[in-house]
Protein 1
Amino acid sequence: MDSGNTAWVLTSAALVLFMTPGLAFFYAGMVRAKNVLGMLMQNFFSMGLVSVLWAVVAFSLAFGDGGAFIGNFDFVGLKDLADPDFQLPGYVGDLALTIPPLVFAAYQMMFAVITPALITGATADRMKFAAWVAFLGLWLVLVYAPVAHWVFSPTGWLFDRGALDFAGGTVVHINAGIAALVLVLVLGKRKGWPGEGMPPHNLPWTLLGTGILWFGWFGFNAGSALGANAVAAQAFMNTHLAAAAAMLSWLIVERLKDGHATTLGAASGAVAGLVAITPCAGFVSGMAPLVIGGAAGVLCYLAIQLKVKLGYDDSLDVVGVHLVGGIVGSVLLGLLADEAFGGLLFGGGSDLLVNQFIAVGATILFSGVLSFVIAKVVDLVIGLRVDDDAEDIGLDKSQHAEAAYNFGDIAMGRVGS
């Protein structure tokens, strides 16, 4: 065990947890005033339910030695993880952990917390809180844990065949992004969309959330080195450069298309870059993060323009930013990975690129199908969507009997509604 590595990963775990409140504010600023608490609550609730389920069973399913496709129940209730000398299945040789297994479990728990929380931006303004609770718990165990096992566990089939995902391009962003798309298709469009204007009620909150996400993402990516070392330093620099490049490229395209560079565009562009660099962070160097971030800013901007044409109501652009950004980063990794990791443009041949496509496709297929089944079951049993009156009143009042603002028109949900 290495005390410096342990301290860094513990710090990174705290940074990743901080990202979930950051995400809550990022999303809450973009919804209408009558739905602010509904959005905040869905994100904060993830910290509670997911953490409990992770400790009880999901960590064991993700990192237990059950085979290539899912773990087993060896670590239910965090069994054996308090022993600092215990090594998790597959973490041997060069992969041997230099941090206590309980620290690793805590760090991975924070990834599990934020991943389903990403979905809430797509379903904003119309999903029952009880339905979100049911979907969240089922999705964590049935979808997130298996995909995490495939990619993050050395015993998983995608890890074994050589697919790379440094910090969650497939496990986190593609996984949540395709689930978000499926869920909004089952849930249906918001009343009045797309004809009725539904502007963000508080863009300063969105920018504050972006800043917290950017800050926390250093723990997300650099922490995935699982040590205070040169790989962490590379991941840290790559993370920042990709976010910066994506913000600039998004704003350039936005300015050329619409005539204005907006604060919402700056926030969305930065997050798109952070998403795209996530699978690549420890595997690329030099100018690669600028290329990855720049491409993500342009492609994610273009992707969100399609939702009206295709007719799916992704309220806060989860599909355009997280699904598309995760695909962009995962595929570009096959081209731009350093020579040691087999990037095509650095003499590594096509094997890595092929494996990246397989990982992307498998994640989309598995998560998409299972998310659809879960959504339909929840809809049949308790209903996914609030009724028309509750949607008109807003989720704050109808689901939580509270109001985010208690003065004037804002308290009635009329400002920004």
Protein 2
Amino acid sequence: MNKQALINSLKQKGFSRRILNAFEKVKRENFIPDKLKKYAYEDTALPIGEAQTISQPYTIAMMLSMLELKKGQKVLELGSGCGYVLALISEIVGDKGRVYGIERIKELAEKSKNNLKDYKNIVSYNQNGSKGLKEKAPFDRILISAACEKISKTIQNQLKDNGILVAPVGSRYEQTLVAIKKIKNNYTIKEEIPGFVFVPFIEG
């Protein structure tokens, strides 16, 4: 599959023009190992080293859709890997938006910083993400890009009022994508979509 075929596939699945535009602008091949570049626009997850993967484009588009991103928002991604999703979020929130990523694996965090060097509105950190990023909180949106058995209150509390958090929640072998909205310090499940598999979120 080439890039246009992937975009057409995502379009047929009903994703918004803003999400499609982000996929058109960001070069997925820049975020994967050289030997896998020929598979860059296959709608599948690919290994990026350190036993981690870059998620399937359809899965990423689904998470971005559930986040309901808007221009100018401040967004945190935990488990940001090679930086591909950070770049997509950056395109959607625009120059006035702020995007923060946390990746605990040093080698991936370093690759991510190199991959994202031309993005002025992204800051990525090499640290453990289990406590979120309190010093930059609160956030309009939080994305956890790794499987959680449950979503910690510490991370939920870093949402702004009316903020949305999206995460894959479940066992190690299958998760449900869950969107949670914070309204006056109450957390409501807004949407649930089952049938996903992510690498595990490492606590501590």
Protein 3
Amino acid sequence: MFDFTGKVAAVTGASGIGIGIETAKHFFAAGARIGICSRSQERIFQAAREIGGEDQSRIFAMPADTSVVKDTEAFIGGVIRRFDHIDILINNAGVQFPGPSVEFTEEHWDSTVDTNLKGYFFAARYAAKEMAARGKGGCIINIGSVNAVTVVAGQAVYAAAKAGISQMTKSLAREWGRDGIRVNCVAPGSIPTLINKDIYRDPAVERAMCEKIPMGRRGTTKEIADAVLYLASDYASYITGQTLFVDGGLTLVHG
């Protein structure tokens, strides 16, 4: 359905088990050249092998901590040096520290906000500068969360950062629209990934979530990646500044 042959897509947080690596696989399968990063050198190079197999000519992988601005700049710059330009940026890297807010530390705050919000802004900034200078536009997609609009005890800072992503998406879309740069957000519901693995270790927690979701099940990383590719494609050429909730109806439930 999607053809990204000749396009260059960069995906942050694209190792391990999660939305990032699944999205990178989707873009690669659709013909794109792919840049991926994560904090772990071992995991990101393993991800490159998993995505491309013997064909590593369309993959650029490097370790980078996107909570650190110089690492973010180095990654975006590395993608551009390897493939000459960048057409699509997927801001996906994320961390969370669920638990009582009275036990939340300054270190937790810095890690949550710097990774989930600051890192997104500076990656978008660097990518947009290149896109605008090249004069052919581009697409930036931020991975948000249903937590931006729902209320979950023990996730105050994570929720604030994700809400910030949705609002930042709107602002950047308005600011960069005349440069041909579309900025959107995909907000997943409950998706099994490495970031929430510990939360759902108890089968009872998983059952309770499935009972809460109108569609009766948790989503998959593939379903999120499909939404990302749609927003990055020409099928969504007149869509910008939007947050697309891919949540099985979870945002329809209160409490």
